Amino acid sequence: MAEDLLHNWQKKSADHQKEYKKYLHRADKNKVLKALPALHVEAVDKIDCLQCANCCKNYSPRFKTPDIKRIAKYLQIKESDLINTYLHIDEDGDYVLKMKPCPFLGADNFCSIYEARPSDCRRFPYTDEDVVLKRQSLTLKNSSFCPIVYFVLEKLIQQK
């Protein structure tokens, strides 16, 4: 069943964007929030992020001040060197990566700073959080490149 759902998931996600938007807009918040933890676990059990790494290859997390401090310490470099080498300020005023894919992503899709990674990376894909409903445009965007977000949205829609 999950294999069928995940087969050709990127095309299906693109085809279902309007349906996802409509669903998220009208969803029963309490019902969704109650369902998310189990759906998140089911998705993570079925989908291996190390086989994908689309998030690390195509997008940047925000690097908040605590992230910058933690990563610089982990890399044993100055915070200013981390910022100057890897980051720039985006249109929202956040520090994000200058380059894609993430310079900390290895050829094996492992993160070289995993223990110190930014909080956005720790939390991604947010499918066990209220972010799914609170930041609907982010959820829709994430569903286009993350099979876990796609899987959770499809399962939520099936449950309605």
Structure in words:
- The structure is a single chain.
- The protein has 2 domains: 91 residues, no CATH class; 58 residues, no CATH class.
- Helix content is 61%, strand content 4%.
- It contains 12 helices and 2 strands; from the N terminus they run ααααααααββαααα.
- Strand 1 and strand 2 form a beta hairpin.
- The longest helix has 18 residues.
- The two termini are 18 Å apart.
- The model has no long low-confidence stretch (mean pLDDT 95).
SSE diagram, text form:
Elements: H1 2-6, H2 9-15, H3 17-26, H4 29-46, H5 49-52, H6 54-58, H7 65-75, H8 79-86, E1 87-89, E2 95-97, H9 119-123, H10 131-134, H11 136-143, H12 147-159
Antiparallel strand pairs: 1-2
Helix pairs in contact: 3-11, 4-12, 7-8, 11-12
Supply the key terms:
160 residues, mainly alpha, two-stranded antiparallel sheet, 61% helix, elongated
Distance between the termini: 18 Å
Helix % is 55-70%
Record the strand order, biggest sheet: 1-2
Q: Give helix and strand order, one letter per element, not per position.
A: HHHHHHHHEEHHHH
Largest sheet: 2 strands, antiparallel
Q: What is the 3D form?
A: elongated
Count of β-strands: 2
Summarize the structure.
By secondary structure, this protein is mostly helical.
